[in-house]
Amino acid sequence: MEDYLLAFILFLPLIGGLIAYNIPLKSGIIASSFLSITTILAFYYLSFIQETLWVFQFEWFPGFVMGFAVDRPSAMLILLVSLISFLVHIFSIFYLLGDRHKDRYYLKLGFFTFSMLGLLMSDHLILLFIFWELVGFSSYLLIIFWFEDIKNAKAGRIAFMTNRITDLILFMGLLMLLGSRNDGFISNLGPLSADASGKTIGICILIGIIGKSAQFPFFTWLPRAMAGPTPVSALIHAATMVAAGVYLLFRLFAIFDPYLLNWIASLGIITAFLAALIAAYQTDIKWVLAYSTISQLGYMVMGIGVGAYHMALFHLWTHAFFKAGLFLCAGSVIRYLSIQDPVAVVQDMRTMGGLKSYLPITFCSYFICMMALVGLPFFSGFISKEGILVGAFSWANQSQNGLAFSLPIIALGISFLTAYYMGKQLLLVFFGSYRGEKYLKRPQKSWTERAPILVLAILSLGVFYRIHFLGGDLSFLEYWLGIQPQVEGAGMTPMIASSILLVLLGLGFSYWNYGRQGMHKMKSFNSSRLSVFVQNGFYLDKFYMGILVPSFDWLAFKTSKIDTVLINPFVNKMSVSIVVLSKITDLFDKLIVDGLISLMKRIMQILGLMFTKFHTERIQMHFVSAIIGLVIILVWLKFAL
User: Which residue ranges make up each domain of the chain?
Assistant: First the structure.
């Protein structure tokens, strides 16, 4: 039964997308209906899965077996992807109202959901990489959905090429890992060897992971990927695709040695800090959330590096809900302003303001999701983020290295930055008065807009993770992740109190800058060189496009010159030599080989004619010849003896 159930969960989104594509007028309803069934089946499966691991294996070709496997963590994420994809499908009915390519949109959305679910179910390295690539390709199709705009097409190309480069390195690492093991099943993998080959494998896999999860130095593609529809950003750039790298890191945690895990933790905290700093200087509502996503993914990577991998996975779960909610709220704002004030730059927060009076449901949902993101008590983000911070401090205590404490200290500082830039966004978008040129009107009510963001806001409350109706008396953390309550924060009260204090200070600082004087006067943005430098992502894009790309172009040009000057003449001369040699060989074949064969043929013909004449005489001649021969033999024998 489990085989059929999981097959339905895997293929229903794709089937729904195909049917929706062929019935354009009802595409949104059809695709959403199939996702609703997928979500129900995923929840049903999650409700009865116990400790046993579901495994399905098959022989791809003789001697090579691959397979799928689902345990508790992957079952959780299957439900997560199905539910958020369903809510995004519903919201898209509102967001893409009037778009003439809705049918194509839902087909691509179903294809992406299918690919992501396949990745979560894969238990073999090669099978996982196949779905990994399908996730990347389907996300590219969604990013360039409005490809008529050259900027969107360029953004999609940058995202696609960045991921292809890191995916190639990942593939090399997976092949080396597969070659060093008897099989490629993830559930059977053990630690890598401590020699150079083991470290090379680990580094290659890590590069692929940080490319997909937009970690430093490969995070520049994610903000540009915001060119796609905002619901797409909620699904693939907040809840699922970029989290795939963290999920793979979680799955392969056992193969990394402590030395490489230390580097993973350091890389995660660097990314989290840099992205939070950049987010604080952004003016685009979606770019703030994009860099916030990168920062939170850095938290998760750091959590895995310090050994708090279960809490990192839990933060992936909570982050998916509140960040998808924030993106859908941003989509609600963008859609509303694009209708009310068509000439406005609808994603620039400097032209917004006062929208809480016009979009009260959006404001309330945004506020709840924001509180979860900054990590205040009673919200889901507080539980998961503080769990990672506790793990970081425990790791620093055990490392007996003073520098190790820099990680949790920087993580605390990121709490301040997160609260600051989210408070700034809240004030600029929803408070004060509208700074555009048009007079705003109240929007028409739409349940396809409000229902998804309300559901995501409710799921961002912390109460749902302190109880768990599927696990009896156990909480969500205890039942699904095996985390005991004392691991969450016992003995770490000063650290948690410091985190809460820094969050409150960050919110207060944002109010000091952007919310004073009745919240209707916006303080001008800093235009200093440093702020411009940070706002532009430290000009990493400029570095890549201005130095790395020209360097590769120069290398390609020089390589082509070598090909033209050296290789091509050599190949041409070799080809001429081969042609001449073939002509000589042909003449030798015709004159010598064929001549000898013709001579032998002529000799055999002559001999044949001679024997033919002999055999055509009369039979009397044969008898006479035989008698004469017999007489000669007898005479010889007589005299010889």
Answer: 1-256, 263-517, 545-630
